[in-house]
Amino acid sequence: MNRERIHNILSEASAKRILVIGDVMLDEFVWGKVSRISPEAPVPVVEVSHENSYPGGAANVARNLAEFTGSVRVLGMIGRDSFGAQLRGLLGEERIRTDCLVESASAPTIVKTRIIARQQQVVRVDREKKIKPDAEVLRAILAQVERVLSETDAIIFEDYGKGLLVQELKNEVCKLVAGRGIVVTVDPNPGNPLDWSGVTAIKPNRSEAFAAAGVPNGDPADDPLQDAPLLEVGRRLIERWQAKQLLITLSEHGMILFEDGQPPYHTPTRAQEVFDVSGAGDTAISLYTLALAAGATAQEAAEIANHASGIVVGKLGTATVSAAELIESFPE
User: Fold this and answer.
1) Cα–Cα distance measured from residue 15 to residue 2, given in angstroms and rounded to the nearest whole number
2) What is the mean pLDDT of residues 155-179?
3) What share of the chain has pLDDT > 90, as a percent?
4) Is 282 annotated in the active site?
5) Mean pLDDT score of the chain, rounded to an integer?
6) Looking at the domain that runs over 3-36+47-328, which CATH code has it been given?
7) What are the extents of the domains in the chain?
8) Most CB atoms within 10 A, among 57, 77, 141, 182?
């Protein structure tokens, strides 16, 4: 795929309307340096220089999309707390619509705080309470989906295993979108083994795919197209989930795409340097889905997702990729 083709796809993508449903959270980064060990315990003392906060989890998927289209909504559950207000504000700053966020009186906003010194993560502090949506919250979520469906070209289910995505929610959303021509993709979580049958595409990483298929995950082959266990996993999951496409991300080996009735397609990694893999999966599912909605083939969408992920892992923190960076990564 050359730059003219990627430019055409991104031009079409700019008008697409995407709804992200999943576990939203706030990512905090505390940056500093370590020069001594604490006299109180054998742990480093981090002298803080600055702090940043970004939308995380499903909200980071929305953030990746906002670089390419001006119509992105995120539907998730936040607490009635200062972190929820902060997350809503950060999303608004990035032109991401927050009118579908549902506030919960019983579940606090999920916050992940990473403390980083000398470009290395020292520790991560998680503040979360896993609560599945009760009947009232579930009705509120489905009401929001129904309200915005006429303004939606694609839906992404982003599952971080924090409790929001349950079988009833997936089933009801799929019933609502049936026959509307809406692309529906999933970034699954092996700790939450839902039946994803009937969606357009599913994007697990290698370990998630092996766990979902019930196959032991051994050392990968240098050539994914000659990796017999991986090919068996792809076959099993396509059959089980009855999805049109299965895209498995393979870290340093790129990605492999399975389509029903087609031979597997492998795209090697495009990463030049790897500094931080956090958020790479968010980038992959967001760009893959957006490309499909914009009329790209599954193979073209896989190439776009792979290039975008390769750029993001070369950045520190919860990063995104710009349209200019993505276009530049393709040959003329």
Assistant:
1) 21
2) 95
3) 78
4) yes
5) 92
6) 3.40.1190.20
7) 3-36+47-328
8) 57
